Amino acid sequence: MLKQKRKINNLQRSGKTYAIIYCRVSSDRQANEGHGLDSQENRCRQYANQRGYEVVEVFKDSFTGGGDFMKRPAMSNLLSFVEKNAYKNYVLIFDDLKRFARDVAKHWELRHLFMRLGITLESPNFEFNDKSDEGWLNETVNAVFNEYDRRTNKRQVVQKMKSRIEQGCWTFGSKKGYTMVKSIEYGKICVPNEEGLILKQALEGFANGSFIRKVDACRFLVEKGFWSKQKPERYIDKLTNILKDSFYAGYIEYPKWEVSRRLGKHEAIISLETFEMIQKRLGKLDFGRRMRVDISDDFPLRGLIVCDDCGKHLTGAWTKGRNKRHPYYFCQNKDCINRGKSIRKEIVEKQFIDLIKETKLKKDISVLVGTIFDKVWKEEISDYNNNQKTLLLKKSYLENKITELTNLVLSSKVDVVKIAYENQIESVSRELEEIKEIHSCSDLIDLDIPYRTALDKANGLLKSPYSIWVDLSTKDKQDLFYFIFDQKLSYSKIEGYRTDKIPTVIRLFEEFVTTNSHDVEMAGIEPACGRNSYISLHV
Q1: What is the DSSP string of 58-89?
Q2: Helix (H/G/I), strand (E/B), else coil: 176
Q3: Which carries the bigger pLDDT value, residue 384 or residue 258?
Q4: Which CATH superfamily is domain 2-150 in?
Q5: Strand stretches in 264-341, DSSP E
Q6: Residue 276 above 50 pLDDT?
Q7: In this model, does residue 532 exceed pLDDT 80?
Q8: What does R_g of the chain's alpha carbons equal in angstroms?
Q9: How many CA atoms lie within 13 Å of 95's alpha carbon, on the beta-carbon side?
Q10: Residue 519 has what DSSP assignment?
């Protein structure tokens, strides 16, 4: 304690004032062009030199004026710097009151924080006066006008951007596969680049079925360098957004600002027909894969079959007879001609059993299965091992990050800074828990499963799905259903199952054999994990 008092007294006797410069612009463009941050720093340095201040640090932000000031990276670093050097007399210099905060509430919150830290605020363009009511009023009025200016600018920018979108010009920066280019007629417009040509192949391949699943298209895009930082599975959500975006078909829309779909000024990379085909495929995938939550052992096919006339689900229920209850499947769609017309449960389920008994793998197809299995098995094991290494590295990094943030919390003396660090710790901890959960689940995968045994299981599933079906629980039957059929089955009260509408795994392999499509990449075969006794063929 005595040493600390001596240190403070020595600093006070020296009479030296140390200056910290804070600069901020509202966009990355202003920062990159250099005229914003550099000019602010130069003006603040001139101001410090005129008053004999020693500039010890400069902090620069390119961040919008609204919102929480603790989200500004440079401001957060500035507060941490001051706390670590608590025994110096600091003056914080910024070019203009607008650079400080363009929000009245945040202005005074930040102002009081610096007052508690003992930091004096100065600016070449504004004189702070804390000793009079007039000085408080002047500062408040300036803060109000700065917030009003920010709100007005935002409104005007939104109006201009909305106007350009209504004219068919995209105004939010280039989309993946496009580059912004200046046009004499329309200003900046999006033009397809080399990545766009790669994306075109992926979108058209998904539309025509060359890529059966989204992950197959993602794998193609990763291999071609369209995406490169993560595994294909991590890009499925991004691909889904692209698949649903009419921009790539030459159209523009922005529902958030009530701008309906219209023809854009940019060049399309796929035709409207291709885009519509993609939407149909997405609709089938979304519809065909959704499972019921209320799975019933009494009606194992409920949620898996649809009415052939209207396409809506056939539900299952018990009806009360004279002496006992009877189980039926029926259509509930009020607009369907078959509404309320019941079909006996034993008929529907017997016809289904007959159907999967007929679903068998031909002899010549088993060779193709073996070839595909060889290739994909090796790739899956290699990807799995690489992923485990990446998980361990990320786990170590996150653990070190938590330790670092914890030390900052313990050394911090300001509540608002502590809260910011604690929020970061919470966020990093959640990410670490996810990593640990994935890693622990991965430990359940037995990589020592003999290769030939796994291949036999794959062939066994395709040769006789029925032999596996009969031994599974209702829940597992729902899972296995989609390894046999690509989507839900269409059932007619008169004709039964419409076999002409059934795309099965077997038929898929047969098509590859008859067309000799060796260039089509098949889906992965994962090692058995958990309680499922069959190999997961993701088709």
Answers
A1: EEEEE--SSS-GGGSHHHHHHHHHHHHTTTS-
A2: coil
A3: 258
A4: Resolvase, N-terminal catalytic domain (3.40.50.1390)
A5: 305-307, 314-320, 325-331
A6: yes
A7: no
A8: 33
A9: 17
A10: T
